[in-house]
Design a protein that fits this description.
2 helices
């Protein structure tokens, strides 16, 4: 799997978690622990996205 593909997959998962958090928070009976766990997973994905971006070669300007 290329770095671009891996990055796109991580970003897709991050968006899905964002949507899940919004939906859970909108429910009056939302479980605080579940929302906290989703937020933790989202943060871990964000950190992984940043690590992948740092390893990608930078485009050169000519």
């Amino acid at each position: 799997m290329s770095l671009q593909t891996h990055l796109a997959e991580l970003e897709r998962k991050h968006r899905q978690l964002e949507e899940a958090i919004a939906q859970a928070a909108a429910r009056p009976s939302s479980d605080t622990l579940s929302v906290t766990e989703l937020k933790r997973k989202k943060l871990l994905l964000k950190e992984e996205i940043e690590r992948v971006r740092m390893t990608m070669p930078q485009p050169t300007l000519h």
